[in-house]
C-alpha cells in the first residue's frame, strides 16, 4: 500500500475513480490511526504509549490498486473539503431511483 501526501491522495483518488468508472468499483475507508505500525506487544512486555492526538487513516482500493494517506488533526477540515469536492465531481454516474407509491400510503394520504 502506498502512503501519500493528502493532496496527492485526492489526485490519485480521482484517477482511481475514473479508471474504475467503466470496469469496476472502488472503496474508500476511514479509520482512526494512532501512529503505531507495529502490533500490540505480548503479555509481560511494555505497552506502546498512547498518542496525544489520534489521526485519520484514509484508504482507497480498486481491484489490486491500493493507496492511503494519514490526515493529522489540524488538516481534517481542509482534507474533508477536498474530499467533498471530489465526491461532488465524481457522483455523476448514479442512477435515479424511482419511488413506488403503495396503495396503502395513497389511501391514507
Tell me the name of the CATH homologous superfamily of the domain at 2-36 and 50-81: Signal recognition particle alu RNA binding heterodimer, srp9/1
Fraction in helix: 25-40%
Arithmetic mean of pLDDT: 85
Which structural class do the helices and strands define?
A: alpha+beta
Low-confidence stretches at least 5 residues in length (pLDDT < 50)?
none
| First and last CA, distance | 54 Å
Could you name the CATH class of the domain at 2-36 and 50-81? Alpha Beta
Topology pattern, helix = H, strand = E: EHEEEHH
Output the radius of gyration. 20 Å
CATH architectural grouping of the domain at 2-36 and 50-81: 2-Layer Sandwich
- Provide the spatial order of strands within the biggest beta sheet: 1-4-3-2
Characterize the overall form.
extended
Strand content: 15-25%
Say what the CATH topology of the domain at 2-36 and 50-81 is: Signal recognition particle alu RNA binding heterodimer, srp9/1
Number of strands: 4
Main beta-sheet strand count, sense and barrel state: 4 strands, mixed
Count of helix runs: 3
